[in-house]
């Protein structure tokens, strides 16, 4: 029963905004009884081409991934102070679940499908091997939907 | 790689608090191109035995379930005005993702495991065929963990 708008019926990721990723990653690792994963940083603007609300932003974030649940990965995200959906969420809500992510094919077409139902892009960017788009789906779905596409 | 504390490595549910479940269920159904699911109400205190922060509460909620994603179900929850984790979340945060749910066996033992790492029960109750416990895991995990046990 693939969702027609998204072309997928699998949730792959839950993204959680944290204040201090070193501390949070240590606590998650203790809870799940695993080693603390590597903490990586999103790439600089020249590579990530990050856009937030249609404007370029130098925002970056530190990330850590937990793959302890077999059907979904948990991504911890610590934003920097530049404008981004990550920073906005932390300032408005504090720490918590920021997004639900799905893998898509042909992201441009999926974004067009979402625009037709009133859901536009709030932030997008590139990473090595793929790209992402956070959708402004909060009003309709109560959470931010992230589209991920690996090449 | 089953989690030792929980005895499971599968996330089964994402719970979302909403202001108006009729409106939200309609919007979700439109988005996923499915029929609006039945909206049910949690049982009255005499059957649910709901406890919130260690005290009995008459809190109830309206629920709607979406099973459009094949690896995880989405639960919409509209709380009433009585004290509950649902009401507290809505008052503090507004609409959004309230919990991540896992099925467990031998819930009492799993709760003991969680207490040992500093995570106590915030709300618990019975439903026909099973029981649930929301854990006070926000400080450590940034989300509320729900334990579900069907008999």
TrEMBL record, chains A, B:
Which Gene3D superfamilies is this protein grouped with? 2,3-Dihydroxybiphenyl 1,2-Dioxygenase, domain 1 (3.10.180.10)
Q: Which domain of life is it from?
A: Bacteria
Keyword annotations from UniProtKB, A to Z: Metal-binding
The UniProt record lists the VOC domain at 10-150
**Know the name of this protein?**
VOC family protein
């Amino acid at each position: 029963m693939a969702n027609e708008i998204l072309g997928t019926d699998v949730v792959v990721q839950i993204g959680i905004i944290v204040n201090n990723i070193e501390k949070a990653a240590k606590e998650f690792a203790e809870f799940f009884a695993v080693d603390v994963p590597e903490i990586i940083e999103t790439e600089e603007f020249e590579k990530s081409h990050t856009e937030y609300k249609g404007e370029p932003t130098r925002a970056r974030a530190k990330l850590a991934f937990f793959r302890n649940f077999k059907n979904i990965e948990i991504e911890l995200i610590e934003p920097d102070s530049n404008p981004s959906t990550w920073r906005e969420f932390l300032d408005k809500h504090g720490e918590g679940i920021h997004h639900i992510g799905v893998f898509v094919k042909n992201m441009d077409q999926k974004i067009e499908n979402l625009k037709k139902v009133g859901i536009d892009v709030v932030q997008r960017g590139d990473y090595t091997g793929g790209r992402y788009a956070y959708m402004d789906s909060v009003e309709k779905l109560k959470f931010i939907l992230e589209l991920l596409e690996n090449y």
